[in-house]
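Need residues for this backbone.
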């Protein structure tokens, strides 16, 4: 019976949150400012007419850096639960986390060695190819 009460409580909270979300979306749709202009329906939605070709060179190194940041940031976030439960995991858990940290360090060293953080190298290689 205890499990049923917990299940019903969770289901009640999920239905309450679903109802709140639906109400908020409906209210924002009703009260929101809805005016469409020709420039807002264009593909860029920036308010002015495009004046040149959109297919220009863009350095993707910024995306590589942001993906690497997200990867390493998420991996560091995974260490926080270990820090909270360090007294419960024992020696095996400690060695598992040390292996994880060594693996992170090796991955970071590989990214550094491969030149993923070097913007000048990428810019010069693009100029040489054109």
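Answer:
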């Amino acid at each position: 019976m205890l499990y049923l009460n917990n299940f019903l409580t969770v289901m009640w909270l999920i239905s309450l949150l679903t109802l709140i979300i639906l109400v908020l979306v409906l209210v924002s749709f009703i009260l929101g400012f809805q005016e469409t202009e020709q420039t807002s329906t264009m593909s860029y939605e920036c308010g002015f007419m495009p004046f040149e070709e959109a297919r220009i060179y863009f350095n993707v190194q910024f995306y590589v850096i942001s993906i690497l940041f997200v990867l390493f940031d998420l991996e560091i976030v995974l260490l926080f639960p270990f820090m909270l439960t360090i007294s419960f995991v024992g020696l095996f858990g400690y060695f598992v986390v040390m292996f994880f940290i060594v693996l992170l360090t090796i991955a970071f060293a590989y990214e550094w060695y491969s030149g993923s953080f070097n913007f000048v190298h990428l810019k010069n290689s693009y100029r040489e190819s054109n």
